[in-house]
Model the fold of this input.
Amino acid sequence: IHKWYHSGLNRWHGLGSTADFQKIIQERCDTYPQQIWSYSRSRNCQEIKQAFMSAFISKDPCKATKEDYRRLIDLADSTVPCNKRVLWSKTKELAGEYAKVRGLVTLEDTLLGSLADGLSWCGEPGSSDLNTWSCPDWKKDCRTNYLTVFWEVLSERFAESACGTVQVVLDGSLENAFNEMSIFGRVEAPNLKPVVTLQAWLVHDPGKPPRDSCSGSSIMKLKSILSERNVRFICRDNLSRDEFLGRF
Ligand code: AVW
Done:
């Protein structure tokens, strides 16, 4: 039983691939808004879906590389306005809502971001199927898993091509609103262009007190990463969800 367990489809500690992964990708691609589509070169959803699948199918789920996603990115690259971007860390839902009410965009509003939003996927060497039982977890299994590398590649591109003022929504209820090990911390902040201004918002959960602030040590760390790159930094803290979303 132990031998089976360790070599079997159940051995990873992360969520398994989303059921109907292919169908969801195809459907999201087909219905991705036309206005945003007009920014992208062409649309062949069949081809995009196939490129997504061949990025990881039959491969060791712990050996993902940026290169694996190259063809998918070439096929499905879409751009959103460079001066309207919202980043987030531990605040996905809130950042999405904020972007929506302000007419801004998150990574999930780009074609590739929207295709993969909330999904999980991984394959298995010697099999042409997705592993729906388990996929590698970043902490417990391996960092170079297909999910993580996907979001890293997309996030890097999203951050490095941003211009003007970039917003980032952080969770002020955490002890460290800025986490150097998060994608925002390790990929996005270090890839912002020098001309950019980063506007950070520290928003605390309703019913929870703010625990971190713009003068706390985690934000100081963020500041130092940015100042090395000559990125201007503005920070606002002590915001409740309602204050932040602009309904008082
Ligand atoms: P986190 P991070 N759907 O909350 O700073 C599913 O600590 O690390 O924030 N999973 C996703 C999605 C998504 N749409 N986006 C990221 N992930 C994964 C992309 C990813 O592995 C955006 F532009 C991430 O580490 C944000 O500015 C984890 O779920 C930034 O990356 C969420 O961890 C958020 O990444």
